[in-house]
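Recall that a protein's primary structure is simply its ordered list of amino acids. Everything else, from secondary elements to tertiary packing, is in principle encoded there. The following example makes that idea concrete.
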Amino acid sequence: MLIWTLAIALFIIIGALGYLQGALRLAVSLFGLILGLILAFPLAPLLSRLVPMVGIKHPVWSVVWPPIWAFLIVFLIFLGISFFVHRKVALHFKYREEDLARLRWERMNKALGFCLGTAMAVVWLFVIGLVTHIAGYFAVQVVSDDTSSMTFRYLSRGKHDLRSTGLEKCVAGFDRMPANYYQICDIIGLIYNNPILLNRVSQYPPFLSIGQRQEFQDIATDVEYNNLLLSKGDITQIISHPKTQSIIYNPEIVQELLQQDLGDFRHYLETGKSPKFDEEKILGRWDLDFYSTLVQERRKRPNLTASEMMKLKRNLTELLKSVTLMATTDNKVNLKVEMSDQFKQAAQAAAQAAAAAASAAQNSPGSSQMSPEMAQRYGLGRGRGASTPPSGAPTAPPAAASVASREPAQPLYSGQGSWQREGDKYQLKLQDERGRPLNGQAIAEEDKLTITMPQITLVFNQAE
């Protein structure tokens, strides 16, 4: 087993080193080793200021390196002291004691050095076992086959060996990692081994607004990266991918993610229910149900004529391609309206026709660029029964006005605003893209959202 091989190697190497160096040197080094382990985390905040100075930006390494530096500084200081102490004592026995006393001291120093070496090997075994216990917890979550990187495979194997030998219970008593670390490992492992949960991640209420960031929008459109996630690719490749790096090295996103309720998030991943946010049923993404909206509008206005109903149906089913609404935990609402290709083509054709008609009217023989006074002097533009328009009054070309009147009217506009809960209903205050108010009252059910507006009543279904 890997852990026993490591233990035997440590006992042989450090024991032999202790025999060669002597008990005095090993005793001081062992004291420095234990003191360094004790002071590693208390001194880490002092050394954390060096992290940005040396160019470390990774959020994980910025937490890992300060305690390692603190441990190494303390241990190396005592390692240097051990050489100084050993030299002082050795010089004393060499020049101030008899040869017999010196030989006895050297023999005893080596014998005790071997014993202290085995003690130091035990400490190092606990240190390596603790590191394996902490890092291996994450490795076990993301190692699935032999295609994983060698580092993660050895960490995973070491973690299993610790558990099978019972050494895990011994080193776990020295574990000072925060509970958030293990919660994050569990969440990453859950998502990694169940890629279908990626869609559920994007639907988690606090992540709705975070998902609008450009970094996450780029991930959603990157086919290669999504295939890597869905195929449970090597975790090393996923971490080193530029899309992952863009999130890891963004401190604002990292802090926002770490501030989430990890217990609630894990419960949501496992059950699809969030105990923290389930009371606010308006939260989430919603897609307009065109048929239910027509039925609701028919009930609201029973006196609708057949032509009015056909016009409403055309506005909803032909002119609108999709209507989505998103309500986030910061009490914001975003209504997004996307027009159909048919509407865009009709609007573009009407705009081109209006421009052509206006250009034709300006270039016609009857349209002169001379001033009204000059035209009156030469009698131009005055026909029989003609009347002069008032000075300064703009005249629209009749053809352009006729074409513009045929441009389709957009039935609904995108808008942004806020929501506020009042009892079992929600008050929505939005402003569309033209600056007009778009307010309404919403009733949210399990998977249905009904918004009553002065213009129309919209019925949405929970987006999948």
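Residues 381-387 have pLDDT under 50 and may be disordered. Residues 284-341+409-462 form a domain with the Lipocalin fold (CATH 2.40.128).
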